[in-house]
Amino acid sequence: MTNAFNNRIGVFDSGVGGLTVLRQIYRQLPQESILYFGDTKRLPYGTKSPQEILQFVREILSWMEKEEVKMVIMACNTSSALALEEVRAEFPFPILGLIHPGAKAAIKQGKRIGVISTVATASSNAYRNAINELEPDAKVWQIGCPEFVPLIEQNKIHDPYTKKVAQEYLEPLLRNRIDTLVYGCTHYPHLEGVLKEILPSYVKLVDPAYAVVRSTAKELEINGLRNREDALATRFCVSGDPEEFAQASKGWLGFTPHVEKIKLQPHFGIVDTPMEIRDNSEQDIYAESLIA
């Protein structure tokens, strides 16, 4: 495939979380055309194994390659943490993740950094490693928040239960006197109003979506891939129910998108079996990585 400057940028997530990245693209790179994919049939990613995540990512990227994207943004921290480095060498276009841009943005804000994320991202230590590589003196606390993504996807952001869950997740971070909080999942900026009710006013919020789009702009410039024509309308695709995604996303987009249903093909001969949300103890716990 030959990259062309007027081809679309691929953006993918497990669901509506990646819309926070899409909104940043609309603001920072309004001339670019976007192909957005939500793997809603298999969300949440945060309860899946690293092997499953890698398989999902390969299937999505293979489909996007056939659609002739010029670049891909993994608008999913779990995928960025568990699959980015492995797949970068497998595909013929630049692939950007959220972890390193988010880490760079975090150390500019403070030295006592909390990260809220999926269980899989927290368990990977991706943010702690990236932050400490850039700033060894930074203190990092990571909390896996398994209930957030389902609550957001079900549009229960303003439900009292959501605030109760958020208070439980944030309590260890507040106890350790964080001065900065990183959204370690692209779904979580949707909870900003709830989180601000709980956090002290001095805690700075870091959205890696903003940082990764700034990195995207630089990557486009370096590779001569900036679009020189009018942007096409964003193409929205999902693996699950198109109508559910359209209704869940219209509040964040400001319009009701037309959404296509896409069947991904198995990659490397591995059977594409629908993965059910697991009902086990992993849903009931959250991971903490505490550095004294």
Which terms would index this structure?
single chain, alpha/beta, Rossmann fold, 2 domains, 11 strands, globular
How does this structure look, described?
Keywords: Cell shape, Cell wall biogenesis/degradation, Isomerase, Peptidoglycan synthesis. The protein is of the alpha/beta class and 292 residues long. The protein has 2 domains: 9-98 and 210-261, Rossmann fold (3-Layer(aba) Sandwich), CATH 3.40.50; 100-208 and 280-290, Rossmann fold. Helices cover 41% and strands 16% of the residues. The protein is built from 11 helices and 11 strands. The protein has helices at residues 19-28, 50-66, 77-88, 99-107, 119-124, 126-134, 148-153, 160-175, 192-198, 208-222, 242-253, and strands spanning 9-13, 34-38, 71-74, 95-96, 112-117, 139-144, 180-184, 204-206, 235-238, 259-261, 288-290. The strands form 2 sheets. Strands 4-3-1-2-9-10 form a 6-stranded parallel sheet, sandwiched between helices. A 5-stranded mixed sheet has the order 8-7-5-6-11, with helices on both faces. The protein is globular, with a radius of gyration of 18 Å.
